[in-house]
UniProtKB/TrEMBL annotation, chain A:
Record-annotated ABC transmembrane type-1 domain positions: 95-284
Gene3D superfamilies for the chain: MetI-like
Species of the source: Chitinimonas prasina
Transmembrane residue ranges: 34-52, 99-118, 130-151, 163-180, 217-235, 265-283
The name this protein goes by in its record: ABC transporter permease
Phylogenetic lineage: Bacteria, Pseudomonadati, Pseudomonadota, Betaproteobacteria, Neisseriales
TrEMBL record, chain B:
SUPFAM superfamilies membership: MOP-like, P-loop containing nucleoside triphosphate hydrolases
Species of provenance: Chitinimonas prasina
UniProt-recorded name of the protein: Sugar ABC transporter ATP-binding protein
PANTHER family tied to this protein: MALTODEXTRIN IMPORT ATP-BINDING PROTEIN MSMX, MALTOSE_MALTODEXTRIN IMPORT ATP-BINDING PROTEIN MALK
MF-aspect GO terms: ATP binding
Amino acid sequence: MSQAQTMPAIAPSSASALQRGLRSARLRRIVRRLPHYLLLSVLAIITVYPFWWTLVTALSTTGDVYSFPPPLWPQDPSLVNFIEVFDTIDLLAFYKNSLLISGATVVGTLVICSLAAYPLARMQFPGRKLVFGAIIATMILPAEINFLVNFITVSKLQLTDSVTGVVLPNLAGAVGIFLMKQAFEAVPQDLIDAARVDGANEWEIFWKIMLPLAKPALGALAILTLVTAWNQYIWPSVVMTSPENFPLSVGVQYLSGSFSFKTRVVAAGAVLTVIPILIVFLFTQRYFLRGFDGAVK
Amino acid sequence: MAELKLKNLQKTYEDGPTVIHGIDLDIRDGEFMVFVGPSGCGKTTTLRMIAGLEDISGGELSIGQRRVNDVPAAKRGVAMVFQSYALYPHMTVRENMGFGLKLAKKPKAEINEAVERAAQVLQITHLLERKPKALSGGQRQRVAIGRAIVRKPDVFLFDEPLSNLDASLRVQMRIELAKLHKDLATTMIYVTHDQVEAMTLGDRIAVFNGGRIEQVGTPLELYQQPANQFVAGFLGSPKMNFLPAQLRSGSNSGSDIVLAGNTSITLPQQYRLQSGSPITLGVRPEHIAWQVQAGDNAIPASVDLVEHLGGEQIIYARADGMDAQIAFSLPSKETAPHRGERVWLKPELAACHLFDAAGLALPGSGQPYP
């Protein structure tokens, strides 16, 4: 007898009862999750609203910038403020500088943080916990505390007004080391043992096994570093002295002149600064979230 | 191929306990040696010391006449198959299997040839371009074995390789492993806590307990002539029945022993122990017959439970005056007593084991072993 023949047919009444049951279960699930959705929606509005306000301000050509409540949609929308940005500053040169600084910071951070994290995660040596504790402790200090000593160091190394001067102090961050350490710790010991029996030395284990397996964390760290490096303002403005070397975040300050302050043009500059990083993040947020999975397990 | 010599091998963790207390063992060239024992007995630690994945705290380890205590894992001529398979998830099956040769900087053609050959032996040629996540448990295990074969090691090390597989696949892989050993004729060391695997695969078995080897021998030797109560109890399912007893007297015709509950049994052998010495009588379930009437050398008992396993049935009975439950087995075609029935259990006297108060087998007890 075939399987189809042995299967009892579902009566129409029981099928509709099943559907009703599924519908009510779905409804109950939605009701149960409603508070979560509400809370998340409020948080999303609070987070996104400043960006939205900046975009609305940049696109509007009329009305009071500081009116309250602020308008939700652009008034007489136009791209005139964006055009003025391009007319006022050499935006492409600033983009190029930002790309150079951010790219170098990302590559350097991935190299330094993964090299620092591997022994902390996988090697036994005296003082390992102390070293890691000291690195983590730096997370509670505001970055500005380091400015003075970093500036003196960069000056002594004659690296002021250079990309290296901006990039160097940002390469070994506690967050990056922590993230990579967690990723390396998540790799099963058996894989390392198997590689060792296969003849891999410590460097080959790191390069051929650990790093490929830590790709999600590397991706997350790359995105996080890119966003931070792209948006950083104070340190590059301290180190860079020649305007032609300014990154975008510092360069847009030229939009606010000494005697006039055009808020809409500055807002347009801010939007132009944020857009590239926003696009990168939109395409890579999947990797970003996956990378953090390991860190919060 | 290579023989291994473990001389007083010890392992002590830094600021921690000693887990291996001086192991002496010779493993012959081409032998299939099984390390068996309960969890935490030190069998895997010993295997990892042989592999070079754990430092050796004391003693000497030689592989093929060469002292390898301080030789790195890769240069010991060993390949290891892990319980978790330990396949590199970012590499294809082909890359996994060829990884060792690639590290050894072998030419690409040679690597490909070796991988294809091993894949053919293990019937995984069609899987070579897949990633491990696209494989079933059994296929992963084959790849792990293939990765070991490709390196043509002197010694294969298996760390509970079948324990993550389901029961039927485990039986199939067990048969294939035995065949593989026959084909390759290479020394293999196999760690398991499964006594069926140990009994079926091993040329010889080393029974581990508490970081020591209790006994080494062929499967049948260990089963029929266990050196002590631990080995006797560990091998065999259901396990050997242990009944507390006293040696009453010895005569030319044999030895009388009295079980708790005052049942007397006369064994054919003579034992050099003082009368009144506490001993333990060990009887395997298949060496017990039952009857409905009292008789000589018969232990009165009541049936607690009858388990039907298909091919055989296991009967659990509680002996009079004893806390111990006695298990005995019967072929399924034979009539078994009913639950609650009063029975008399007759141990096969020539197959009885006697253990002294320290749990050591008394010389002359146990089944005759050639």
